[in-house]
Amino acid sequence: MFVLGIDPGLTTTGYAVVGNDEIVALGVIRTSPADPIPNRLAEIRRDLAGLIREFSPSVMAIEQVFVNRNLQTATSVVRASGAAMIAAAEAGLLVVEYSPSAVKSAVAGYGRAPKEQVQRMVAARMGLSEPPSPPDAADAVAIALCHLQQHALSRRV
Domain with 35 in it: what CATH number? Predict the structure, then answer.
């Protein structure tokens, strides 16, 4: 089972295709802030659709948007998340959302773990000497690992 983990963002969307013991694809989709927002969203959708065709994941796991203080940032993340979900829906791919605290809890054992701790745990769980880079891609691995762990638990129950 391959999971496409997504850390959505309008300027940088992290992605990772992860199996139980391996990372088969990892990276980011970058869009230019100088481009119109609809074009940037189309680029995210198009690039993710290509990844879905290439790797045939079973599911897309995506981080839920968390609105803290910066509404403008949250709006751009919501837009990128929507573009990712459209790519999944067009491919008939199931989409599962996880809150940031659920991802941190699943990977680091603590829902308020700092970003650096989550990245170190991703490296440890995947047998890497250092966290995947860039950080948005490492976050996408964490999201995929969260889903793999939840899926394994639900199969046992």
Answer: 3.30.420.10
Catalytic residue among 63, 97, 116, 139: 63
d(CA 145, CA 151): 10
Domain of residue 115, residue span: 3-156
Tens-place pLDDT, residues 65-98: 877 677 788 899 999 999 999 999 999 999 999 9
Catalytic residue check, 35: no
Q: What is the pTM of this model?
A: 0.94
Is 54 a catalytic site residue? no
Identified catalytic residue from 35, 47, 136, 139: 136
CA nearest neighbour of 1 among 156, 102, 145: 145
Q: Is 139 a catalytic residue?
A: no
Q: What is the tally of structural domains in the chain?
A: 1
